[in-house]
Amino acid sequence: MTDEAPATTTKSMDDIMSLCKRRGFVYPASEIYGGINGFWDYGPLGAQLKKNLRDAWWTDVVMRGCNGKLGPDGKPVEIVPVDTCIIQNPKVWEASGHVAGFNDPMVDDKETKQRFRADHLFGMYLVRPEEGESVDQGVARLIKIINEQPFELPYGPNLSCVASNEEEAFGAFRAAMHRIKQDITRVPDAAVATSFTAETRKGEECFGVCYQVPMSFMKAHPTWIPSPFNKPDKAAALELDNRKSDSQLTEPRAFNLMFKTYIGATATEDDVAYLRPETAQGIFVNFKNVVDTTRVGVPFGIAQTGKSFRNEVTPRNFTFRSREFEQMEIEFFCHPDDAKDWYVFWRDWRMEWWQGLGLKGENLILREHDSDELAHYAKEGAGTSDIEYRFPFTAPGFGELEGIAHRTDFDLKQHEEHARAKLKYFDSTRGELAKNGQPKGEHYLPHVIEPSGGLDRGVLAILCEAYTVDESRPSPEFMKFHPRVAPIKAAVFPLVKKDGMPEKAQELHSELRQKFGHLGAIEYDEKQSIGKRYARMDEAGTPYCFTIDGDSLTDGTVTVRDRDTGEQQRMPMAGVAAFLGEKLGV
Ligand code: ATP
Q1: Ligand 1 mean position to 454 CA, how many Å?
Q2: What's the CA gap between 184 and 349, in Å, rounded?
Q3: Are 540 and 24 in contact (CB under 8 A)?
């Protein structure tokens, strides 16, 4: 690529994962039994980091009503929380469409037995440039060659990109695919292609075309195999004539992502229930309860955080695609006429919120969906967008952190029909005016704007963003967490373990712990050299370390070391709590 690579693309996911394991952020679940695919446990630092992110969301969204930002109606944003069950009446999931439609189309490679999402399959062809040929000419020639194949090969408008090697070409292709992110059931017959120049492994320059394989094509050509197929993580460019001709792939089959369980001892098919695949439905089924038992009125939101479960067919990329994960969801109910304004409000504010936690610059983007990508309920809506982060494993592409969707009145309507419940809202502020000049009121099903974020993906983005390598430091790897989410807020050290320094340090530690313990850990450490202790705290991402030395005992001052600059300054011990409070924004 010609553009300078952003910082995170140079970060290695393996290094980040190994630091996470070594320092107790994230462990494989059931590790002593060999782990379990798609499940992760958080260690002491990870659990606190995750809690801090969840608390930041809860405080800013629910308790502070979008931090006081006024809604498009010029009024404070009203949000109330709920905490609903993971297991609901299975009819909830029939109404929501999850039992019937929550499927991923999958194909198996008969040879390797690997399973792939059919909509992740892609093909790539390369040709060597002819003398004097420009990229455009080369790509045009390649497309012509492809067109002359004895089958109709799917490709669509070129998304031009120039890559200097195979890896970049695949990366760019992934980015393009991600931008398009087509659900296979909605893929049009002409799939999207990207063209690029690349080098083969032998170092030969070539022109290439990548394209996604639409399901209709797969079905029509069961013996065709894209070449190479589904190797988004490992580039393996083959030339046109190396294409395998016999299909190794099975027909696409649907896999339901719902985790099934049984209620009661008999465990017959009549007792089937499901672990929720999203927290949203617990909110919809309680819409009426909340309206009837509180003073909220449309427009208002209901928020909830909690675990969701999806039997992902190919869990991957650390915690990014797990089978058990936590969501932070808001269902914001408004009058249908106001949906567009609220959609824009939420989309922009959610982006600002993530930026406020340190996910900034080129690594965070807001991506508005194209109309052919929209979920069934959002087709007629005001819009759908994703807030996406450039993870090391998606770079130069992006992975979804949070989706903001106008769900229309789809869910409430479904529950009205399936539960035969009356969910219409009576709005006394609307409708024609009566003789007394007051509105007569209006009954309607509110529309919903849903900002739905992933807590685990948020934590992962924060870990990736914070991970910094600087060989000149005592700890070449350190975590530059925003102080608000840092799991350890401060550490207190005695310079040496004698002369009354430990006692003084413990005194300060105890004071800070009582004052700031609700925000995160305050650590005390007297083991090893002071340099090693600083290095340890840098790896944990602790923003400030306070050290008690010989002078502290005589003049009552301490040193404070800043994690990011490594600089130290002296300050009165009595002023430490105020200093830290200011830095932590409390
Ligand atoms: P994807 O396309 O990546 O599967 P999605 O569009 O199905 O995600 P939503 O149903 O919109 O995701 O869920 C809302 C949020 O929940 C996502 O933005 C993401 O942060 C999180 N999420 C969804 N699936 C997973 C998963 N398997 N593991 C971790 N987080 C997830």
Answers
A1: 6
A2: 31
A3: no
Q: Which CATH number fits domain 13-102+260-465: 3.10.129.10, 3.40.50.1170, 1.10.580.10, 3.30.930.10?
A: 3.30.930.10
Class of domain 473-584: alpha beta
Q: In the sheet that 158-160 helps form, which strands lie side by side, from edge to edge?
A: 122-127, 205-212, 193-199, 158-160
Q: Which two tokens stand for residue 272?
A: 């089937």
Quick check: CB of 369 below 6 Å from ligand 1? no
Residue 102's nearest CA partner among 361, 376, 326 is 376
pLDDT tens per residue across span 393-451: 888 778 999 999 999 999 999 999 999 999 999 999 999 999 999 999 999 999 999 99
pLDDT tens profile 448-500: 999 999 999 999 999 999 999 999 888 899 999 999 999 999 999 999 999 99
Q: Using a 6 Å cutoff on CB, does residue 277 contact ligand 1?
A: no
Q: Which atom of ligand 1 is nearest to the CA of 329?
A: 14
Task: Enumerate the domain spans of the chain.
Answer: 13-102+260-465, 104-253, 473-584
| pLDDT in the model for residue 470 | 92
Task: Please tell me if the CB atom of residue 333 comes closer than 6 angstroms to any atom of ligand 1.
Answer: no
